[in-house]
């Protein structure tokens, strides 16, 4: 009900946005822009990379963190506070570090922090688990900066929206797959398994990103 009340203000606010110049658009043109076969080699490579990134994200997104905290003895109120602090910290560091570094630098730092924090979470419990959950927000903020920087660097101005849609389709496809698998991993092996998978897959993404982005994104 709270979400419905908040969303009620979104629609009237949207009409207050200043619109740009309108251009003719039809279904044929839309389908052409969405056809990834017509995209360049670099774009296709990053479509695969975003799928790998989504695989990493799915093992720690959705229900995983709240259930992890609950299993460590935190009540629902405390879980909400900890997740909220994590999101607040992620937003704060996204704001502080955005546009201040080359894309490659925050991505490398976030990759290390992301993987190390998730591995530590896999072996943590009780209060230490809650502290790490909040600290993880720092890595999440840097990952967000890097992700947005990649999107703005490899998308075409003439098809900016559709390019982002294709890349995010790859990311959410990987996210959906790993999120579905995370429940089975937690049931069979505990939380250590999905956290380790998330950290290791992100390292794979980072290594492949460095190889594919030379002269395209990493150097900017």
Distance between the termini: 44 Å
The fraction of residues in strands falls at: under 5%
Global shape: globular
- Counted beta strands: 0
Structural class by sheet pairing and helices: mainly alpha
Number of helices: 10
Radius of gyration based on Cα positions = 19 Å
Summarize the helix and strand pattern as letters: HHHHHHHHHH
Brief summary of the model shown:
The protein is mainly alpha-helical.
State the main characteristics:
10 helices, mainly alpha, single chain, 220 residues
Description:
The protein has 220 residues and is mostly helical. It has helices at 2-7, 10-14, 27-34, 41-58, 64-71, 76-97, 104-122, 126-154, 160-189, 192-212. Helix 6 runs parallel beside helix 8 and helix 7 runs antiparallel to helix 8. The radius of gyration is 19 Å and the shape is globular.
């Amino acid at each position: 009900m709270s979400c419905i009340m908040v969303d009620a203000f979104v629609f009237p606010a949207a009409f207050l946005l200043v619109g740009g110049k309108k251009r003719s658009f039809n279904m044929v043109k839309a389908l052409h822009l969405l056809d990834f076969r017509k995209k360049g080699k670099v774009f296709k490579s990053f479509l695969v990379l975003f799928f790998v990134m989504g695989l990493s994200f799915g093992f720690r997104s959705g229900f995983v963190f709240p259930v992890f905290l609950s299993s460590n003895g935190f009540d629902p109120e405390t879980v909400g506070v900890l997740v909220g602090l994590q999101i607040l910290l992620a937003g704060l560091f996204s704001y502080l570090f955005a546009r201040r570094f080359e894309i490659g630098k925050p991505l490398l730092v976030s990759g290390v922090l992301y993987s190390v924090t998730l591995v530590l979470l896999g072996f943590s419990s009780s209060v230490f688990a809650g502290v790490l959950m909040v600290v993880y927000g720092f890595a999440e903020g840097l990952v967000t900066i890097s992700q947005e920087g990649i999107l703005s660097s490899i998308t075409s101005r003439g098809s900016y929206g559709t390019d982002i849609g294709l890349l995010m389709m790859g990311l959410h496809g990987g996210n959906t797959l790993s999120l579905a698998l995370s429940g089975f991993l937690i049931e069979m092996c505990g939380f250590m398994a999905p956290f380790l998978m998330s950290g290791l897959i992100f390292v794979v993404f980072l290594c492949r990103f460095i190889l594919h982005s030379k002269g395209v994104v990493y150097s900017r």
